[in-house]
Design brief:
The complex is a heterodimer of chains A (362) and B (576).
Chain A lengths: L3 E12 L2 E12 L3 E5 L6 H9 L6 E6 L2 E5 L2 E2 L7 E4 L11 H10 L5 H14 L15 H13 L5 E5 L7 H18 L3 E5 L2 H7 L2 E6 L2 E6 L1 H6 L4 H7 L3 E12 L2 E6 L4 E5 L9 E6 L4 E4 L8 E11 L3 E8 L2 E8 L10 E6 L5 E4 L2
Chain B lengths: L6 H29 L19 H8 L3 H32 L5 H7 L8 H12 L5 H8 L11 H26 L3 H8 L4 H30 L2 H6 L8 H10 L5 H27 L22 H27 L9 H5 L7 H8 L1 H34 L5 H9 L6 H12 L10 H11 L1 H12 L4 H9 L4 H12 L1 H17 L15 H10 L3 H26 L14
The chains are: A alpha+beta (362), B mainly alpha (576).
């Protein structure tokens, strides 16, 4: 059992009559990278700000390194929590140079100028901004500002690193590069991190564990692969990836955790589940387009179904087809740059075995 | 931002500030309103309730000349507002949206009259256009013009109002024009509309809220204005409300309760108008702001470029050049009586005697020191006080901050002369020794300029992204350290603006101090007005120039301080 670095217990927060975080509990292990994922307004940023000490929970406790920092009647102010935080807006102070920004946490702790300079230089090296120290902070590009913000969060060796959608203001290419760098840096430093985002691609790539939030509550916690393969609700399935979600009913339970279902259009398949799936129960069938492929018609393979191509969208790394499965539209992602099949072409749809899953109907 | 454990400290701060501002702002006005329904003047905050009466209002309303008084006050204010709106909006459009030659210069000079105190403007135009001895009239007679100018008329006063208050309109409308998404105009051009139609159908409706809101503000300022009517109204037997209030106090014995009743009526007008203005201004967000800072092709004026430029710079001539020349001319003469061009140009008349008095007479010099002291303390105290208020209102969620905000904007609707009168009643005989010192004037000024100072600081504070402050807390800095190292440096442009405003406004103020000075606490502008009434025109001209010069130097100094390494070109990341 790894050491618990940060523990949230029964957190609750309201703004006026609106409850934004409800009974939230979570523990983050030492060295772990946890991503809180959810749509805007789900309470993820409020949760992060409560860990930081920028918001006071109405109920519940927060402990960092086993010490209670927030509880009824007890509140440690943000400056005393030893947390590094990277903000969405970068929050780089425009009236200071790059190294003044980075060295600020050391300055307010009364560390001497010489040591400040050395340590600032060291973290600037770490984030790939060597020799940029004397520049005015406003002369930096967005990506550089984000690195400065990261350097500033790292410089005082915090117990915990918090990220509030730090990449959302950057363009796609830069975002992908910084994501890779960030993950590598976190591996190297071994710093426990909590990262908030609404971008599932970011979450899947960065996280050791993803916490999916909806309307102030945690709906599922798990490794990215688990969330992908075993969504517990339709919301998680939809949010983590664009999936085929087909209304269906359970026909029969074949084995523990496996059932035969039939969609409204009449397509029948075996699907995994961890719900009470007795015959007649309405469910949603979740199948990812990436778990399917199209073969030549009439291929005698198992798990194949006759379909007809309705349309296709070329997406560079692959082609996303919409096919008619028992007359109902169904998405399939075929990787590669082959010339797309024309609408009306008959084909055979193969769904990878064991990938169909059912969640409770909404 | 949660203040954390300092929360009770925050509550204490809010209560203390609320109490202080109530005593400074609400109490004097309350005492004045009470005084207007009593038969005796309140003494030391003790009221004679037995004399509760509406007789003061009846007396004011029944006095002969009340109807002309009201008509002149409102009529001249209205005419002045319309004139100011026409001048200000046209200048704004010319400077921001067209290819008029010298548009940068025009943009700079259009606001220059803001730094000419109304009192100085009134003096200058008296020297220029009094019917008998006005310099312009002497010139007109010399060239055989069949008419003379008369500044002592309704039209003359409205003209003076319009030219000196046009910059307020200019500021609002030019800002609205700059923020306007220019593609809205371009879309209209692409739809086939011509220049005139675009101006009429698109541009004007989009800046209408700014125009209306600033016009209402100017209307309020003109209704309560004392300086211009006091100088230019009396010779032509035109009477105005602010001047009448001053007259009533000047009676022996002073008719203080009637003056309060008249003041209360003025207050009702200004409060209603300011509420209306707030309503209009709060709808201003309708104007679409693109915020992309894109440069747009200015409207080509074609053959009208030069004539319109001439008109634009003609305005500069009227408000800055002619008045300055007139004041210089009078200030540098031995003899202020002249009636021909020859006498005007007589070089033997040249003399620096008036400046000698202005800088040599201990009384005059004393008033200058008094004014500098009052303005400096007002600036220092007001800046600290209103920084705290603006911070609490805009950067915290402390309970009571809305009340604080409300109290601080109240003085917008309270004429300076009313604040002065209210202070007189509240403090005159309280045994705390405020009356007769400069402190009572300082307190009155600090109250009166609360809205301007708070708004200037708030303008900078709201532009500082909250995360800039929060990240400092996460970096280990406490609340006060964050304030000192992050918030104050970043809010410096607004803080410096507030300092300039507090100094300039208090240095030029006249009406507020009219009832608050004694022989030992005479101020520079009061002395100017006093000398004017006694006919020392030459000395007044010299003093007016000195005052304008001090204000100009101060403003330039402040501008230099505002612009520093961080603000140019790279705006502080904004909220949102």
């Amino acid at each position: 059992m790894p050491t618990v670095k940060c523990a949230l217990q029964g957190l609750q927060k309201s703004y006026g009559p609106r409850e934004v975080v409800s009974d939230l509990s979570l523990s983050v292990a030492e060295g772990e990278f946890v991503v809180i994922l959810g749509p805007s307004g789900c309470g993820k940023t409020t949760t992060l700000r409560m860990i930081a000490g920028l918001e006071r929970p109405d109920r519940g406790t927060i402990a960092i390194d086993g010490a209670i920092v927030s509880a009824p009647g007890r509140f440690v102010r943000p400056e005393h929590r030893a947390i590094g935080m990277v903000f969405q807006s970068y929050a780089i102070w425009p009236h200071m140079t790059v190294s003044e920004n980075v060295a600020y946490p050391l300055r307010v702790r009364g560390i001497r100028l010489r040591e400040r300079r050395e340590r600032a230089e060291r973290v600037l090296d770490l984030v790939g901004l060597s020799n940029e120290g004397p520049r005015p902070a406003t002369a930096l590009s967005g990506g550089q500002m984000q690195r400065v913000a990261l350097a500033r969060a790292l410089v005082s060796d915090p117990a915990l690193l918090l990220f509030d959608e730090p990449l959302s203001n950057l363009d796609l290419k830069l975002r992908e590069r910084l994501r890779t760098e960030l993950k590598a840096l976190q591996r190297r430093t071994g710093l426990t991190s909590v990262y908030v985002t609404h971008d599932q691609a970011e979450a899947v790539e960065l996280a050791d564990r993803i916490v999916v939030m909806q309307a102030g509550r945690i709906v599922q916690i798990g490794r990215p692969q688990d969330l992908y393969r075993e969504p517990r609700t339709r919301f998680v399935a939809e949010f983590i990836a664009a999936a085929n979600i087909l209304p269906a009913i359970v026909l029969a339970a074949t084995a523990p955790g496996v059932a035969i279902v039939r969609t409204a259009a009449g397509f029948e398949t075996e699907a995994r589940h961890d719900i009470a799936a007795s015959p007649g129960v309405p469910v949603d069938l979740v199948i990812h387009p990436e778990d399917c492929t199209l073969l030549a018609p009439g291929a005698p393979a198992q798990h194949c179904h006759a379909v007809e191509v309705l349309g296709s969208r070329f997406q560079g790394t692959g082609t996303r087809y919409t096919v008619a499965l028992h007359g109902a539209p169904f998405d399939v992602l075929v990787l590669g740059t082959d010339e797309p099949l024309a609408p009306g072409t008959p084909a055979s749809l193969r769904i990878a075995p064991g990938r169909a899953r059912i969640v409770p109907a909404t | 931002m949660t203040l954390g454990r300092s929360l009770p400290l925050g509550a204490i701060a809010v209560s203390a500030l609320l109490l202080l501002l109530s005593v400074l702002i609400v109490l004097p006005v309350g005492v004045l309103l009470l005084g207007s329904v009593l038969s005796e003047a309140p003494r030391a905050l003790r009221f004679d309730w037995s004399g509760l009466t509406l007789a003061n209002y009846r007396d004011v309303l029944a006095a002969t000349g009340f109807a002309p008084l009201l008509a002149a006050t409102l009529g001249a204010a209205l005419a002045g507002t319309v004139g100011a709106a026409l001048i200000g909006a046209s200048l704004a459009w010319l400077a921001v949206r067209t290819d008029i030659p010298g548009r940068r210069v025009l943009d700079l000079v259009a606001v220059m009259p803001l730094f000419v105190p109304p009192l100085v403007g009134a003096f200058a135009w008296d020297i220029l256009a009094s019917p008998r001895s006005g310099i312009l009239n002497i010139v007109l007679r010399a060239i055989g013009a069949p008419f003379t100018l008369n500044i002592y008329t309704f039209g003359g006063i409205a003209f003076t109002y319009a030219i000196y208050y046009a910059p307020y309109i200019y500021l609002f409308v030019s800002a609205a024009l700059r923020n306007m998404d220019a593609t809205l105009e371009e879309a209209a051009f692409m739809s086939g509309a011509g220049r005139a139609k675009v101006l009429l159908h698109i541009t004007l409706p989009l800046v209408a809220p700014a125009l209306l809101s600033s016009s209402l503000l100017v209307f309020v300022l003109l209704i309560e204005l004392f300086a211009i009517p006091a100088v230019l109204g009396e010779p032509g037997n035109l009477h105005f409300m602010a001047v009448r209030i001053w007259d009533l106090i000047g009676f022996t014995p002073p008719r203080v309760n009637q003056a309060s009743a008249l003041g209360a009526m003025m207050l009702v007008m200004t409060v209603v108008l300011v509420m209306l203005q707030h309503k209009v201004a709060s709808r201003r967000n309708v104007v679409t702001v693109a915020g992309k800072g894109q440069r747009v092709r200015p409207v080509a004026l074609g053959g009208l470029r030069w004539p319109l430029a001439a008109l634009g710079f003609g305005y500069l001539l009227l408000v800055v050049v002619l008045p300055t020349v007139a004041l210089l001319f009078i200030a540098l003469r031995r003899n202020i009586f002249f009636s021909t061009i020859g006498a005007i140009l007589d070089p033997t008349q040249l003399s620096f005697a008036q400046f000698g008095i202005a800088f040599g007479d201990p009384v005059v010099v004393g008033t200058l020191w008094n004014s500098l002291a009052v303005s400096s303390v007002t600036m220092a105290g007001g800046t600290v006080l209103y920084f705290l208020v603006a911070y609490i209102v805009h950067r915290t969620r402390l309970p009571g901050r809305r009340a604080l905000d409300l109290v601080t904007v109240l003085p917008v609707a309270i004429p300076g002369i009313i604040i002065g009168l209210g202070y007189l009643w509240s403090w005159i005989s309280l045994p705390i020794g405020l009356y007769g010192t400069l402190w009572i004037i300082i307190l009155a000024y600090v109250s009166q300029f609360a809205p301007q100072a708070t708004r200037a600081i708030a303008g900078s504070l709201v532009q500082i992204h909250p995360e800039l402050e929060e990240s400092s807390r996460l970096c280990g800095a406490g609340f006060l350290t964050t304030l000192r190292l992050i918030v104050v440096p970043l809010a410096r442009p607004g803080i410096v603006s507030a300092m300039i405003l507090l100094f300039v406004l208090s240095f030029r103020e006249l009406a507020t101090a009219l009832f608050l000075y004694t022989s030992g606490t005479q101020l520079f502008s009061l002395a100017m007005f006093d000398f004017w009434q006694r006919g020392s025109t030459g000395l007044v001209a010299a003093m007016a120039l000195v005052q304008s010069l001090i204000l100009l130097v101060f403003v330039l100094l402040g501008q230099a301080l505002r612009r520093d390494r961080m603000t140019d070109g790279n705006p502080v990341p904004t909220a949102g």
